[in-house]
Design brief:
- The protein is of the alpha/beta class and about 375 residues long.
- The protein has a single domain, classed as 3-Layer(aba) Sandwich (UDP-N-acetylmuramoyl-L-alanine:D-glutamate ligase).
- The chain is built from eleven helices and 19 strands.
- The strands form four sheets. An eleven-stranded mixed β-sheet has the order 7-6-1-10-11-12-16-17-18-19-13, with helices on both faces. A four-stranded mixed β-sheet has the order 5-2-8-9. It has a two-stranded antiparallel sheet with strand order 3-4.
- It is globular, with a radius of gyration of 20 Å.
- About 50% of the residues are buried.
- This is Carbohydrate kinase family protein.
Length: about 375
């Protein structure tokens, strides 16, 4: 399989702070938490480390370890950070022929502060990542690609999204997109217009909720009824949280099944909605699958888990795997990532994932609800 990852490259500075050294405030009525930093005070850190990251680099490394012949389309600066990224790509066997460089901006960088449950707060400077030009995503980049994976794009780079999707589709690739929240809120209309060209759209719960108003206003089709399928792991227990609670944003509410049907009504073949430790959902023409989150030995960092899940799922689906197997492999790879502080050390090879799936073929648990109409 020949794969192409398009999107961001970052240098991540990851700061781990002991829980006793930083206060956390949790809002009971809003299910969000805040780390409190006191002005003018030095805070002792357990570790401060620098790693290569960014959505497209994370995805490219994941796909390469899964056995795909992978290249990356990125834009970096002319600084030392760019050299570190290029070195990392070479180490992982990812082709850097399509990595463009610019002296108009610096290479993207982020500072992640993690404490308590290790769900990091991230300060980001996107830099050169925002400057993809049309020539950087020319049609020849897509020739012969079996899988094109598009990560979050912002600013000028987000303007390239329609052409990227169209060119990837014209090349006959399996086209997967994992957009960011700003892309969905600031550019909802052009994004929705290109859903028809996607083989897979992947969003997390927050991103899915951001799409609810646009889908509701358009009054796209509601979901057909869902029927639990006992042959696919349903034992009569209650549905997972997001299926019970649905999605809500800005006064608009939508059941998960309705949301999945609405997105698919635009022509998107498959939709993944991830919900952190509550697992993830995949909707296709047959119905909705849910995979439980795989157990992690110890959560050391959550950054990169979404990249691992979605790129693994996309790679296996593009390679012909059935949805249940793709979801299980994705959950296992994401669990490996959260066991490390950086976004790539925990990524598995295809052989390692296959061995784990063979040893426990029903783990993590997958449930399935079939469309009835």
């Amino acid at each position: 399989m020949r794969a192409l990852a398009i999107g961001s490259a970052m240098i991540d500075t990851i700061v781990l702070v002991a829980s006793r050294n930083i206060e956390r405030m949790t809002m009971a009525n809003d299910a969000v938490s805040y780390l409190l930093l006191e002005q003018g005070r030095k805070v002792e850190a357990e570790s401060i480390a620098e790693h290569v990251g960014g959505g497209a680099v994370n995805a490219a490394v994941a796909m390469a370890r899964l056995g795909a012949e992978t290249a990356a389309v990125l834009k970096v600066g002319t600084d030392l950070k760019a050299e570190k990224i290029l070195t990392r790509l070479r180490e992982e066997g990812v082709a850097a022929d399509f990595v463009a460089r610019t002296d108009a901006d610096e290479t993207g960088a982020a500072v992640m502060i993690a404490s308590h449950d290790r769900n990091a707060t991230i300060f980001t400077r996107r830099g050169a990542n925002t400057r993809l030009a049309d020539t950087d995503v020319a049609a020849d980049r897509f020739a012969g690609r079996d899988l094109v994976y598009i990560t979050a794009l912002s600013n000028e780079s987000a303007d390239r999204f329609p052409d990227i999707v169209r060119r990837a589709g014209e090349a006959g690739a399996f086209v997967a997109a994992n957009p960011g929240i700003r892309q969905l809120t600031a550019r909802a209309e052009p994004f929705l217009e290109r859903l028809c060209d996607l083989s897979l759209l992947a969003v997390n719960r927050v991103e899915a909720e951001a799409l609810v108003p646009a889908l509701s206003v358009r009054r796209v089709s509601h979901a057909p009824a869902l029927l639990p399928d006992a042959d696919e792991g349903d034992d009569g227990s209650e549905p997972p949280p997001l299926m019970r609670q649905g999605l809500s944003f800005g006064g608009f509410d939508m059941e998960l099944a309705s949301f999945c049907a609405a997105v698919r009504a635009f022509g998107c073949a498959r939709l993944v909605v991830s919900d952190g430790t509550n697992g993830a959902y995949l909707a296709d023409a047959e119905g909705i699958y849910h995979v439980a989150a795989a157990d992690a030995v110890e959560v050391r960092g959550t950054a990169g888990a979404g990249d691992a899940f979605t790129s693994t799922c996309a790679t296996l689906l593009a390679d012909g795997a059935d949805p249940a197997r793709a979801l299980r492999a994705a959950a296992l790879n994401a669990a490996g990532v959260v066991g490390h502080i950086d976004t790539q050390s925990g990524l598995s090879t295809r052989a390692a994932l296959d061995a784990r799936l063979a040893a426990a073929p029903e783990t993590p648990r997958v449930r399935f609800w079939r469309w009835t109409t």
